[in-house]
Amino acid sequence: MKRDACENCGGSVLSRKARVDHRWKGRLIVVEGVPVGVCRRCGERYYDAAVLRRLDFMARDKHVGARRILVPVADYAPADASHGTF
Asked: Edge to edge, what strands does the sheet with 45-46 contain?
């Protein structure tokens, strides 16, 4: 795990367990309790190579996951007059 200063902002990086949305070849898996290094200042995340390999392995396994969640998917499109503006 990265213990040096953040490469993005120079802040301190602390070890944490986090929920990670991981994609592999178009497949999305949400994994909880993943060990990551997180910058206290900007939130940049750092992963060990072994953790990333494990996440890829889990995403390839079609039977992994005790729970399922339904996630809405939308296309980003410019606002038009019929839907209002932001």
From this structure: 13-24, 27-39, 45-46
Residue type at 58 in one-letter notation: M
Indicate which CATH number applies to the domain containing 54: 3.10.20.860
Domain of 2 in residue numbering reads as 1-62
Burial class (CB in 10 A: 0-12, 13-18, 19+), 53: exposed
Structure tokens, 48: 């060990």
Residue 35 lies in a domain: yes
Q: Does residue 69 lie in a domain region?
A: no
Q: What is the full DSSP assignment across 37-66?
A: EEETTT--EE--HHHHHHHHHHHH-TT--S
Q: Mind listing the pLDDT tens digit for each residue in 21-68?
A: 998 888 888 999 999 999 999 999 999 999 999 999 998 887 777 788
Q: Which helix (H) or strand (E) holds 9?
A: none
